[in-house]
């Protein structure tokens, strides 16, 4: 049966940062970030993921942020709520809170540190999806978790009623290619690495959960529209123009650089929670150069001016 809740989980989806002020969540800044994204054309808000510093958020803070995102969205765009943990029972609790708050789907990372087997991963997600009516998107990022969802496990999970997609941040394009022909066509395959977006879209991916969209939401949205319109030249020009920024945002562990960049735009404080620390001063010039190179085009895209001919 077709799940209409999934129709809009595609395109440019932003992995939102979590702004802090004096150690606490800056709710006003977070709501402003959400509104800026929606106005710029972002398709989906994704709070409480890696970019949102989920590992150093309390459960109460995660619940607060999901509620704020739902409030900001006002039904205009879906909210894909980060609700993962390395404890199955805790994940179920977070997913149920996300459902009660009105999130449209939940993004659940593979359990980290305890390194379960493939059968353990299957049972973890099987239990989560059985506990809710909320659509569940798997999140595979082995370089952070120490465990990878193997193709056969993803295929098994895709057969479960509430497992609806995968955020693929594995970097394994061979597996992504095989997955395309191993799961139902309605199963969402979402890029989790801005630098690999073109490769994923070429393999039929429906969208990207993006770090870069925090900085350039209008250009990222326009890039996805270009792909959907089969204007691959326009897509390639924007993608190439964003490449220096994509690289600069990963000079240090995400979200260190993106938060510093947003602070330079006056949108958030660059405050992070330990053990993350602010961007090293040696990287400031490189990030500033990347911002200076792309922000004029972002401003024109935000204003819906035709800047694409000037993006080389």
TrEMBL record:
<keyword id="KW-0220">Diaminopimelate biosynthesis</keyword>
<comment type="subunit">
    <text>Homotetramer; dimer of dimers.</text>
</comment>
<feature type="site" description="Part of a proton relay during catalysis">
    <location>
        <position position="113"/>
    </location>
</feature>
<dbReference type="GO" id="GO:0008840">
    <property type="term" value="F:4-hydroxy-tetrahydrodipicolinate synthase activity"/>
</dbReference>
<comment type="pathway">
    <text>Amino-acid biosynthesis; L-lysine biosynthesis via DAP pathway; (S)-tetrahydrodipicolinate from L-aspartate: step 3/4.</text>
</comment>
<dbReference type="Pfam" id="PF00701">
    <property type="entry name" value="DHDPS"/>
</dbReference>
<feature type="binding site">
    <location>
        <position position="51"/>
    </location>
    <ligand>
        <name>pyruvate</name>
    </ligand>
</feature>
<feature type="active site" description="Schiff-base intermediate with substrate">
    <location>
        <position position="167"/>
    </location>
</feature>
<protein>
    <recommendedName>
        <fullName>4-hydroxy-tetrahydrodipicolinate synthase</fullName>
        <ecNumber>4.3.3.7</ecNumber>
    </recommendedName>
</protein>
<keyword id="KW-0963">Cytoplasm</keyword>
<dbReference type="InterPro" id="IPR005263">
    <property type="entry name" value="DapA"/>
</dbReference>
<dbReference type="GO" id="GO:0009089">
    <property type="term" value="P:lysine biosynthetic process via diaminopimelate"/>
</dbReference>
<dbReference type="GO" id="GO:0005829">
    <property type="term" value="C:cytosol"/>
</dbReference>
<dbReference type="GO" id="GO:0019877">
    <property type="term" value="P:diaminopimelate biosynthetic process"/>
</dbReference>
<comment type="function">
    <text>Catalyzes the condensation of (S)-aspartate-beta-semialdehyde [(S)-ASA] and pyruvate to 4-hydroxy-tetrahydrodipicolinate (HTPA).</text>
</comment>
<comment type="similarity">
    <text>Belongs to the DapA family.</text>
</comment>
<dbReference type="InterPro" id="IPR013785">
    <property type="entry name" value="Aldolase_TIM"/>
</dbReference>
<keyword id="KW-0704">Schiff base</keyword>
<feature type="site" description="Part of a proton relay during catalysis">
    <location>
        <position position="50"/>
    </location>
</feature>
<dbReference type="InterPro" id="IPR020625">
    <property type="entry name" value="Schiff_base-form_aldolases_AS"/>
</dbReference>
<keyword id="KW-0457">Lysine biosynthesis</keyword>
<feature type="binding site">
    <location>
        <position position="209"/>
    </location>
    <ligand>
        <name>pyruvate</name>
    </ligand>
</feature>
<keyword id="KW-0028">Amino-acid biosynthesis</keyword>
<dbReference type="InterPro" id="IPR002220">
    <property type="entry name" value="DapA-like"/>
</dbReference>
<keyword id="KW-0456">Lyase</keyword>
<feature type="active site" description="Proton donor/acceptor">
    <location>
        <position position="139"/>
    </location>
</feature>
């Amino acid at each position: 049966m077709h799940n209409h809740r999934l129709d809009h989980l595609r395109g440019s989806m932003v992995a939102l940062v979590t702004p802090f002020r004096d150690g606490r969540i800056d709710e006003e800044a977070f709501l402003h970030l959400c509104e800026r994204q929606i106005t710029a054309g972002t398709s989906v808000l994704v709070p409480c993921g890696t970019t949102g510093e989920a590992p150093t958020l309390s459960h109460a803070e995660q619940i607060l942020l999901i509620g704020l995102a739902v409030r900001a969205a006002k039904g205009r765009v879906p909210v894909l709520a980060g609700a993962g943990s390395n404890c199955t029972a805790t994940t179920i609790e977070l997913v149920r809170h996300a459902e009660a708050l009105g999130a449209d789907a939940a993004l659940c990372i593979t359990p980290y540190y305890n390194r379960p087997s493939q059968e353990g991963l299957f049972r973890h997600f099987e239990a989560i999806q059985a506990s809710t009516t909320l659509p569940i998107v798997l999140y595979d990022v082995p370089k952070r978790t120490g465990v990878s969802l193997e193709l056969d496990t993803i295929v098994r999970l895709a057969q479960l009623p509430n497992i609806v997609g995968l955020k693929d941040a594995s970097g394994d394009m061979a597996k992504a290619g095989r997955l395309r022909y191993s799961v139902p066509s309605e199963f969402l395959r979402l890029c989790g690495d801005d630098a690999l977006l073109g490769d994923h879209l070429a393999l039929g991916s429906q969208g990207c959960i993006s770090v870069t969209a925090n900085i350039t939401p209008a250009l990222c949205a326009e890039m996805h529209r270009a792909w959907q319109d089969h204007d691959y030249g326009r897509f390639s020009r924007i993608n190439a123009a964003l490449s220096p920024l994509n690289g600069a945002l990963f000079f240090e562990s995400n979200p260190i650089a993106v938060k510093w960049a947003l602070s330079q735009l006056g949108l958030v404080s660059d405050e992070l929670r330990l053990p993350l620390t602010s961007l090293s001063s040696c990287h400031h010039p490189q990030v500033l150069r990347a911002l200076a190179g792309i922000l004029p085009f972002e401003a024109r895209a935000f204003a819906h001016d035709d800047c694409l001919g000037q993006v080389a």
